[in-house]
Design brief:
The complex is a heterodimer of chains A (213) and B (256). Chain A has helices spanning 3-38, 43-57, 61-74, 81-107, 110-118, 123-153, 165-176, 179-211. Chain A has 213 residues and is an all-alpha fold. In chain A, helix 1 (3-38) crosses helix 4. Chain B has 10 helices and 10 strands. Classes of the chains: A mainly alpha (213), B alpha/beta (256). Chains A and B meet through helix 5 and helix 6 of A and helix 3, strand 6, helix 4 and helix 6 of B.
Chain lengths: 213, 256
């Protein structure tokens, strides 16, 4: 594998990172809304978001990408592969992050909300100033764990024709007939992205464990 | 104490409950509660666990919903909509058994948050107010620390200061010393006594009978969700009328 092939892989890597960042950021915003809806105390809103989460947790990510890519085209919304996989991964991330953060919001002791209410803080301030800062802290290890899953999940975008790292590897492998070398390098690049995050997540988990003692 | 007794007889009630009832499903937690607390009056609520005393004071600032009856606080009738609930909560401070300080904020920030967010006063003013009140509960040197760095007694004093930063007309105490190690009970009670001497209207759920004797204008005894007996402390302790009160006092004073 020559220098040119490696640079092509790095170009793919760039799109993997871009896709991960977009899906994580947009998924976080949507996921926050899902988590707040899921804990709103309004029965119908809670049931609807529970259903939304169940659909995305109960189906493979690949099927979700297919549905967004082909399904939206079918009802007349034309999107290029980049937009389609971004939307698909964002929806996927919103459901999973929403569920992680619901759990974290509920893990903040009840007394915190009660104290905030007794001080006549309204819902927005109660969430923004009191509950969410604590919930985000609690959720960090699980959130980072999901980010790692999401980065690896972007590889499925290759199947709908988006040239990120995995598809770049496929293309090079078909050109130079060295699949083991090429996918070895591709795997190493994923590992270099994910492993530090995993270590960081474990570090945070240990830190919070000792802090809560 | 005289001055508070006078105000107790001359002004309209600061807090009044009439016919308040609350159920948890089929279980009646509060049964036809009628009580009236005058401005500056100090009430100690006591009773066996599960008697509804905590539930009662949590109804006053609507941390608990109730199904029947009316509650008035500082001239505001507590409805079930958020508008009057927020209005009442601005007038009434509450101190909890478990302190419930916000662990991610410093002591100072704990005290500044609500005045800024719900009274809308500016940061400098909120800080000023917070430092003054932290001084008053004798904890000003800990202002920049986080709650976890303080002892239980210190945390509870911060919680009292935090509530006072809202300039409440009345204070509710829900077993403020029950979660404290014995050596820290006194510092919290002293803070409450000082507050009482300044004329604050207070309702305290507590088993500290020494505090009741020293500070209370009236002691109210509850059992099974109902008010069984109420009397000034001297009379309440020396001459309880009901069998259940006698039994309770026997248990609680015998234990001490």
């Amino acid at each position: 594998m020559g220098r040119e092939e490696f640079l092509f892989l790095l170009a793919g890597l760039k799109w993997t990172v871009a896709l991960s960042v977009v899906a994580f950021l947009c998924g976080s915003i949507a996921g926050l809304i899902v988590a707040l809806a899921r804990t709103s105390g309004i029965f119908i809103v809670e049931r609807l978001t529970a259903g939304y989460i169940a659909v995305f947790q109960g189906t493979p990510l690949l099927m979700q990408l297919f549905v967004v890519y082909y399904g939206l085209a079918l009802i007349g919304i034309q999107m290029d592969a980049w937009a389609a996989v971004s939307v698909g991964l964002t929806l996927h991330a919103s459901a999973f992050l929403g569920e992680i953060w619901r759990g974290s919001i509920e893990a903040v002791p009840r007394g915190q909300t009660e104290a905030a209410k007794a001080l006549s803080l309204g819902y927005v301030s109660r969430m923004k100033d009191v509950v969410l800062p604590q919930a985000i802290r609690i959720s960090l290890p699980a959130t980072i764990g999901f980010l790692v899953q999401l980065i690896k999940g972007t590889s499925l975008a290759s199947i709908v024709g988006f040239t990120e790292l995995t598809r770049a590897g496929n293309i090079i492998s078909n050109q130079i007939f060295q699949p083991l070398t090429v996918f070895g390098v591709v795997g190493a690049l994923y590992f270099l992205m994910c492993c530090p995050l995993t270590i960081y997540g474990a570090h945070l988990e240990r830190k919070f464990l000792t802090a809560s003692r | 104490m005289n001055q508070t007794m006078n105000s107790a007889t001359t002004t309209e009630p600061m807090i009044s409950l009439s016919g308040v009832e609350k159920w948890y499903g089929a279980f009646k937690a509060l049964d036809n509660i009628n009580m009236s607390v005058a401005k500056g009056e100090k009430i100690v609520l006591c009773g066996p666990s599960g008697s509804g005393k905590s539930t009662l004071i949590r109804c006053i600032n609507h941390l608990e919903a109730y199904q029947k009856g009316d509650i008035h606080v500082g001239g505001i009738m507590l409805g079930h909509g958020s508008k009057t609930i927020d209005a009442v909560r601005r007038e009434v401070g509450m101190v909890f058994q478990q302190f419930n300080l916000f662990p991610h904020l410093t002591v100072l920030q704990n005290c500044m948050l609500a005045p800024m967010r719900s009274l809308g006063i500016d940061k400098a003013q909120a800080e000023d107010r917070a430092r003054t009140l932290l001084e008053r509960v004798k904890i000003s040197e800990q202002a920049e620390k986080y709650p976890a760095q303080l002892s239980g007694g210190q945390q509870q004093r911060v919680a009292i200061a935090r509530a006072l930063c809202m300039r409440p007309k009345a204070m509710l105490f829900d077993e403020p010393t029950s979660a404290l190690d014995p050596e820290m009970v006194k510092e919290v009670l002293d803070t409450m006594i000082a507050l009482a001497e300044e004329g604050m209207t207070m309702i305290c759920v507590t088993h500290e009978m020494g505090f009741a004797r020293q500070v209370a204008d009236r002691v109210i005894f509850m059992a099974s969700g109902a008010i069984v007996e109420e009397a000034p402390p001297a009379e309440f302790f020396s001459n309880p009328k009901h069998e259940r009160t006698r039994k309770f006092l026997g248990e609680i004073l015998g234990r001490h």
